[in-house]
Amino acid sequence: MKALISLVALSTVAGFAQTAATGGSKVAMIDIKRAVLATEDGKRDMEALKQKFEPRQAEVQRQAKDLQELAKPLAEGSKIADDARATLLKTVEQKRLALQHTAEDLQAEMRSEQNEIVSRVLKKLVPIIDKYGRENGYTMIFDAQFWPAGPVLWASGPAADITNAIVSAYNALPATQTAPTPGQ
Fold first, then answer.
1. 91 within some domain
2. What is the domain count for the chain?
3. Is residue 183 part of a domain?
4. pLDDT class for 158, splitting at 50, 70, 90?
5. In whole angstroms, how far apart are CA 3 and each of 8, 10, 32, 44, 60?
């Protein structure tokens, strides 16, 4: 996801490089991730994703609780015969590995679907950022999530942050322009 966001940021910066050649520099920053998640499409799709994965997350939590209960005699130092202890240890380890695998698969699937949502919204957000930047005379717009560790050495804080303006412009589009296209 960071690579995709960086690519979008770089393409936006490149688009504004032409403005820089004509003189004057006006710079802004946008928190792309926050912008995507604050759009009506982003909020709706992330909520649907959350609801989709809630049952599976609950199942993973239930399995973790069951595993804790199963391992309780081992943790409490209960007196168990050596062969029974060995069998229980083996069972606990097998279930722990299975649970870990299930949880990792769930996280990977959720991340993948989150990235699809972000990508879909970003495709519609980039032209809005471009238009906003051109109409407001910006030379460059940086992604705020990388500041202060990223390429921006200084920014005037909230005065340079155009995230809310971009989200408002996106949400103001007619529903037909922001509705997911078939197959997405």
1. yes
2. 1
3. no
4. low
5. 9, 10, 12, 24, 30
